[in-house]
Amino acid sequence: KMLVVNPKTGQAVVAVIGDAGPADWTGKHLGGSPEVMDMLGLAIGPRKGPVLYFFLDDPEDKVPLGPVRVKNQA
Predict the structure, then answer these.
(1) Of the residues 1, 20, 39, 43, which has the maximum number of CB atoms within 10 A of its CB?
(2) How far apart are CA 20 and CA 71, in angstroms?
(3) Shortest CA distance to 53 belongs to which of 17, 27, 23?
(4) pTM, full prediction
């Protein structure tokens, strides 16, 4: 599993690693599933943008897949 973050918007998702792309010629940083791209705000337009990857150590499978919501602590 990995946590993928869109640094421009703060949108984040926990996803499984099962990707075989993107190809260099696409200019993309991520070749995620349509659902992952949507959760990162990258599902429309050129579908390009920087992303940060954080690999998760979750041997007991306690971290659920899906969007990550961060509560504002203000």
Answers:
(1) 39
(2) 33
(3) 17
(4) 0.78
